[in-house]
Specification:
The strands form 4 sheets. A 7-stranded parallel β-sheet has the order 11-12-10-13-14-9-15, with helices on both faces. Helix 6 crosses helix 7 and helix 19 runs antiparallel to helix 20. With about 700 residues, the chain is an alpha/beta fold. The chain has 23 helices and 21 strands.
């Protein structure tokens, strides 16, 4: 149950004065939430210094400034398109205030000649004179009202002004409980000079004076609170798992060596290392929760197959879950090739399975005769039962929600779980992102894999690229052609338009796949390309992961400047999987901006997915690197990575110590940690009251 001290923070938005049925949905869309606490977590993007300046002649064009002066003149516009002008004088110079389409009588009342006025707004320069157009504030210094010395500036949307939102924040601040305990490490809080939780929110939403260091300390305090909440949850999850019993699966070295000996290539050192890490986990009586992270083509499926052998030899079944029909069938084929010759039984279970074939698979899973099954969401349907499920392997784990993994885990008492991802994450962030998982990294590629030659070309050379694709097709090769959008009337770089154009130019069957197609249509288009029925596949980024076509040697990415680095790298990884030279052609629309140029140059220089992820993170931030914000992953509200990486590390150590000493959180510090965990509970997870 939620602590009653937090009730006021989790009240609905319309419990605040001034929020009615029209404003409420606007606010909910802006803050991505519906409570007072969600509103308070909508932190300012920046703060404006509204302190009154001493003199006009020190004003700089482009800055926001607040000044006081005497009204020297009010001038009417000389044409319908020109503004009213008000001249202020402060003894050091003039400042012209301009008002377009203003009511002259209102202006005369606001600015009587000889009166003093305080104005605040953006200073510009026009024909050598300082001017301020439509000031944000116009005040009479004889009255007590003043602009705020520091004004928070928020991200807004239509229907809201900054002043309105600032007023609502003031009301929300009044809802913060007075009697919350200190959940942070007191020595750390004192050492860093941090305010308490309530004061930190006050200091960001309603600062009393201009102090950039104080603003930074307030933000750091809340970032630490969020990190502490997350790390406490991770520590509790680990502690809970350590108390649960899972099947201990002894090492199966002889069987695993037989698989390795049958391979036509030598496993990499990284594969051997990660096999040992996973094997140690499987041999433990506590449930494994491990992330296997590897770049495109690093050999994750082989590592997963070796783990499966350890489970099978211990008498358990293995479920291999993939997000799409095509990927599940592809993984079935690979596992079948690796394991069937050694006497293991492999099956596939997807939406395509019907009738007697599906029934036979269900019977085999129930009686244990099928040892490994590769499938889609079909695996956790109610009618699917396992005799002895011991290991779950989830491929492209970011495509599944937490609830999906829980459903499949529910097919057994306490199975081990291995989740895999081909989306490189900077090594410095891996633990922050996957804090509840142990992480194994495949950072080598199998020997003999040819590099993909990457070239950046202006889209004025698109005809040359079409001809190159035609020549590749005539040699029996295949090509991907990626477009950024499905179909937009005023854009010629769309999947639908390019499909029509290439079909006409190449005069061969050209495939088309995009997100608007129904899953069976999408799977059919991908299967036609994989089988060779179509030699060119025009697609959006739905082919970013999981499509393995060794005959594909060309990857064309149109409007490449609009894609993120990690995404470009994933797309490039679709080619170069066979024994022929492969090319990635990045078509851009000139002129290129500085960031876009750096992005394309980075891709041309390296194929190291982790180096690319580091660069992408630097350019775009964590949400874009990962491509998706799964519940509990990087859905941070305050933390900014990598800026706050040190706070995450400190919070991890702090939370670990507390949970180790008080696993039930029954002591004073434990109770306090429960409060901050509830405040920063990842959105999308079940409400603790339910």
């Amino acid at each position: 149950m939620r602590d009653e001290r937090l009730y006021t923070l989790f009240e609905p938005l319309d419990s605040l004065p001034g929020i009615g049925p029209k404003l409420k949905p606007v606010l909910e869309g802006l803050i991505d939430g519906d409570t007072v606490w969600d509103l308070l977590l909508h932190l300012p993007e920046r703060w404006l210094d509204r302190r009154v300046r001493e003199q006009f002649d020190a004003l700089q064009p482009g800055e926001i400034a607040t000044v006081e002066g005497e009204v020297h003149a009010v001038k009417a516009p000389y044409s319908a398109r020109s503004p009213h002008r008000v001249q202020l004088f402060d003894g050091t110079g003039f400042l012209t205030l301009t008002f377009f389409r203003a009511d002259g009588r209102w202006l005369q009342a606001q600015f009587p000649v000889g009166a003093r006025r305080i104005v605040s707004g953006r200073v510009d320069e026009f024909q050598g004179e300082r001017q301020m157009t439509h000031p944000d504030y116009i005040l009479d210094p004889a009255r007590p009202e003043r602009p705020p010395q520091v004004e928070p500036v928020y991200r807004l949307r239509a229907g809201l002004t900054n002043k309105r939102l600032h007023a609502l924040m003031g009301a929300a601040l009044g809802q913060i409980p007075q009697d919350l305990p200190e959940w942070g490490d007191r020595h750390l809080v004192s050492q860093r000079g941090w305010p308490d939780f309530r004061a930190a929110l006050d200091g960001l939403h309603a600062p009393q004076g201009w102090d950039e260091e104080a603003l930074a300390r307030c933000r750091q305090r809340l970032a630490y609170d969020e990190a502490l909440a997350r790390e406490a949850a991770f520590a509790l999850a680990r502690a809970s798992r350590s108390r649960r019993r899972a099947p201990a699966m002894p090492p199966a070295r002889d069987a695993q060596r037989a698989i390795f000996r049958s391979l036509p290539f030598q496993p990499t050192g990284a594969q051997i290392r990660t096999v040992k890490e996973i094997g140690t986990d499987l041999a433990s009586p506590s449930p494994m929760r491990r992330m296997l992270q590897g770049d495109v083509g690093a050999g994750k499926t082989l590592v997963a197959a070796i783990a499966a052998v350890q489970a099978i030899e211990a008498g358990y079944q293995v479920a291999f879950m993939a997000p799409t029909e095509v990927l599940a069938r592809q993984q079935f084929t690979t596992l079948d090739q690796l394991l069937s010759a050694h006497g293991y039984t492999i099956a596939a279970l997807t939406g395509r399975n019907k009738g007697s074939g599906r029934e036979a698979t269900l019977i085999g899973l129930a009686d244990g005769s099928i040892q490994v099954v590769a499938g889609t969401h079909a695996l956790f349907q109610q009618q699917v039962a396992f005799r002895n499920l011991g290991l779950i392997i989830v491929d492209e784990q970011h495509r599944f929600g937490v609830a999906d993994r829980v459903k499949l885990a529910g097919k057994s008492d306490s199975p081990h779980m291995l989740v895999m991802s081909a989306t490189p994450i900077p090594r410095t962030l891996a633990q922050s992102v996957h804090g509840d998982l142990d992480v194994s990294i495949l950072d080598e590629k199998p020997a003999g894999r040819k590099p993909v030659e990457t070239r950046a070309l202006p889209d004025t050379r698109i005809e040359d690229v079409v001809q190159a694709v035609g020549r590749a097709v005539s040699r029996g090769e295949r090509a991907f052609w990626i477009c950024p959008k499905v179909d937009v009337e005023d854009d010629d770089s769309t999947a639908v338009g390019r499909h029509a154009a290439l079909s006409d130019q190449l005069r061969i069957p050209v495939g088309l796949v995009h997100g608007r197609l129904k899953p069976p249509e999408k799977d059919a288009a991908l299967e036609a390309f994989r089988s060779g029925e179509t030699a060119v596949l025009v697609a959006t980024t739905v082919v970013e992961v999981g499509v393995d076509v060794p005959e594909a040697t060309i990857m064309v990415i149109e409007r490449a400047e609009g894609f993120g680095l990690a995404q470009l790298h994933q797309l490039r990884g679709r080619v170069g999987r066979g024994d022929k030279p492969a090319y990635c052609l990045l078509l851009y629309r000139p002129p290129l901006g500085e960031t876009a140029r750096e992005r394309l140059d980075t891709l041309r220089r390296t194929e190291d997915g982790f180096a690319i992820a580091e660069a992408d993170f630097r350019l775009r931030g964590p949400g874009d690197v990962l491509g998706v914000r799964q519940a509990g992953t990087v859905d941070y509200r305050v933390i900014e990575l990598p800026r706050d990486s040190d706070l995450v590390e400190i919070a991890r150590s702090d939370a670990g110590v507390v949970v180790a000493a008080d696993p039930d959180l029954s002591g004073d510090r434990g109770h306090a940690l429960s409060l901050v965990r509830e405040l920063f509970r990842p959105r999308g997870l079940p409400d603790p009251k339910s």
